[in-house]
Amino acid sequence: MENLLILLAFIMGVCALLLATWRFFLGPSTPDRVIAADTLSVMTTAALVWLADLFDNPVYLDIALVYAALAFLAVVVIARMIEPHTQKMNKSTE
After folding, report:
1. pTM of the prediction?
2. Residues whose CB is less than 8 angstroms from the CB of residue 17 and which lie 6 or more positions away in sequence, other chains included
3. Domain residue spans in the chain?
């Protein structure tokens, strides 16, 4: 039963990875791509934590922590950079 649940979680993770990658490359707007990049970074952090458990090596947890913090900062910076562009688009449609 445990192996079935692990397999199901792996299949769901791969499906989520494919959908987020699809949205990242074919997203209709820049905010959609930023959200997809954030989703991919969260999935990468989860994969690093899984690797830490799989290999029984706590170094991967440190790497995951640093990666998550840098990915969060990158998403915030990108969101701040595209914010004026998004506000211009909203004003032009009104």
Report:
1. 0.79
2. 40, 43
3. 2-93
